[in-house]
């Protein structure tokens, strides 16, 4: 427990975030399902991506929306996985993100993809996936990996900015000029990678208030962004799925748990271990 507290106090020095990720501090993303019927009377479900941009201290916000198919989200996930280049060595949490994208991101299914419970689960999972990718990119210790900064960050920017300008996507509103110019500079090779001053834990102690809140399992109080201790001892290969964190779940009340922690508690009583909210399934 003491080592956990010590590690929490030691973080990378605070300072301006690199341009590749600093825009994410001002962005929030939400996914909403849209149901429609074609001429063949077959129900089709697409997903409306709503992006809100509000610079810190500004009163005005910019919001734009565009429709993505579920396959478009799956292709986005495939591009992120490719950008991570499984097996590379770095000091960032790339193996964790790789496993998250491979295991948590919603799967395709041939039957029942338009059922209301499936659609609701997909909406929830897609929204959480985007939020998790955002949190990963804002975490300063991950900025030491050039694949994260040059690949993953750019893929997300293209997905939320370029997607709104693609003619096949119905849209409302437009991404702010600053983000469109950022993407253009990136595509023209004008972005210069700003490396973190250090990628080790031996850095100047300070509170990293500018980063995202740490995701914590409400049962074991361990970070969802790190391997469980007993899983770390299985194998030293950082990219081996057995050394990654276990998958995690979010209950309807919003509390997060490692799956193995949650199953044990739900077997005792079908309610949230933290707030007591009754779970129906």
Automatic annotation (TrEMBL):
Keywords: Metal-binding, Zinc, Zinc-finger. The keyword Transmembrane does not apply. Residues 217-275 form the RING-type domain. It comes from the Eukaryota. This is RING-type domain-containing protein. One of its GO terms (molecular function) is zinc ion binding.
């Amino acid at each position: 427990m003491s080592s956990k507290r010590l590690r929490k106090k030691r973080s990378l020095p605070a300072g301006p975030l690199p341009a590749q990720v600093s825009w994410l501090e001002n962005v929030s993303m939400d996914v909403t399902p849209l149901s429609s019927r074609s001429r063949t009377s077959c129900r089709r479900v697409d997903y409306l991506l709503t992006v809100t941009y509000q610079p810190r201290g500004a009163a005005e916000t910019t919001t734009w929306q565009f429709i993505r198919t579920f396959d478009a989200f799956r292709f986005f996930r495939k591009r992120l996985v490719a950008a991570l280049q499984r097996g590379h060595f770095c000091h960032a949490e790339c193996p964790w993100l790789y496993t998250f994208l491979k295991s948590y991101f919603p799967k395709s299914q041939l039957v029942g993809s338009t059922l209301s419970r499936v659609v609701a689960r997909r909406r929830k999972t897609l929204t959480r996936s985007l939020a998790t990718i955002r949190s990963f990119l804002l975490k300063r210790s991950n900025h030491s990996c050039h694949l994260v900064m040059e690949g993953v960050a750019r893929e997300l920017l293209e997905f939320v900015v370029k997607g709104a300008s693609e003619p096949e996507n119905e849209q409302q509103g437009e991404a702010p000029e600053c983000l469109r110019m950022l993407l253009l500079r990136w595509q023209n090779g004008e972005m210069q990678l700003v490396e973190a001053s250090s990628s080790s834990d031996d850095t100047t102690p300070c509170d990293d208030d500018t980063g995202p809140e740490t995701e914590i399992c409400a049962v074991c109080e361990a970070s969802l962004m790190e391997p469980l201790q007993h899983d770390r001892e299985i194998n030293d290969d950082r990219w081996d799925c057995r050394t990654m964190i276990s998958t995690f779940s979010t209950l309807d009340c919003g509390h997060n748990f490692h799956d193995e922690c949650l199953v044990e508690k739900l077997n005792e009583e079908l309610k949230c271990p933290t707030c007591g909210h009754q779970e129906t399934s």
